[in-house]
Amino acid sequence: RIKFKNKKDRYMEMQRRFEGKVAFITGAGGGLGRGVAIAFAKEGANVVVTDLSEKANLETAKMIEEMGGKALADVTKSEDIRNALDKTIETFGKLDIAFNNAGIEYKIQPLHEIEEEEFERLNSIDLLGVFKSMKYEIPLMLKNGGGAIVNTSSTWVQRRCNLCFGKIRGCRPYQISGFGLCFFGYPHQCGLSGNH
Length: 196
Known about the structure:
Layout: H1 7-14, E1 22-26, H2 31-42, E2 46-51, H3 54-66, E3 71-75, H4 81-92, E4 97-100, H5 116-126, H6 128-143, E5 148-151, H7 155-160, H8 173-184
Helix pairs in contact: 2-3, 4-6, 5-8
């Protein structure tokens, strides 16, 4: 057991839990994504931040670098995710952690009033984007002996998986993609054992 002289020493030691690790974060231009990116950097990780907004993404990278961390910023659409991961390997040599956080929401309304293009857009980002991210993240992590992937989904989905949907009025496209994301949360469903 490590003995610390004081609380400050203990706090400083705990802040470096991810020293030498490489974290890849989508949707890092603000909100939860930015907060997680900064937290990983504070813990010693090298952080790759991706977002559709170049300005917001560069702001996140700048914040990390100003506090002494290392960051790589990449403006990424879901179809470019493989290129962003290639840049991650070129820059840092490996991938240990992925936080697939990029997503959009859509208003609740009757299913027959939802525009096809909007439904397809939402699912191309919220569901297909995570699929593509994991498809290319997993092999990189396996080369490194494993890693950790966290996917952002809807708490609405988690609370209502077992409810009778006949009682819920209106269609929630965002939550529909969230149900798909729940599937990705089980390693055995993705062909991986729990020890990866």
